[in-house]
Amino acid sequence: MERELLQKELQLADVMKRQNELETKLVHYNLNETETRNDNERLQKEKLDLEQQLQDLTRDLEESKHYITQLKNQTKKEKRDRAK
């Protein structure tokens, strides 16, 4: 009976040790999940910011192209006027 009790205590200690290991792993996984979620949120925000910057730069480029076209047309007109 004493041997049985000792055996049960050893089993209990083993179960408690495994439980502690699993709890530690769970905490680790939860921290990793939180970090990953935070990284994903940060990256999503950065993506949106970069998309907005790209839209702004694209708009600015189109405006610049339009302005250059106007200047070229104006220059051609002035050359024609001077040639007359």
Structure description:
The chain is mainly α and 84 residues long. It has one domain (1-84). Helix content is 98%, strand content 0%. It has 1 helix and no strands. The longest helix is centred in the middle third of the chain and has 82 residues, at 2-83. The N and C termini lie far apart (123 Å).
- Count of DSSP H/I helices: 1
Share in helix = over 70%
Mean pLDDT: 96
Distance between the termini: 123 Å
Strand portion: under 5%
Unreliable runs: none
> What shape does the CA trace take?
rod-shaped
Summarize the main sheet: none
Cα-atom radius of gyration: 36 Å
Total beta strands = 0
The chain-level structural class is mainly alpha
How many separate domains? 1
Give the SSE string: H
